[in-house]
Amino acid sequence: MVIELARFTVHPGAEEKLLAERPAMIEALRRRFPACLAAFLTQEEDGSWLDVLVWRGHAEAEEAARLVNTVPECREWFRHIEESGGLRHVVVKDSWVGGLT
Question: What's one Pfam family here (predicted)?
Answer without folding.
Answer: ABM
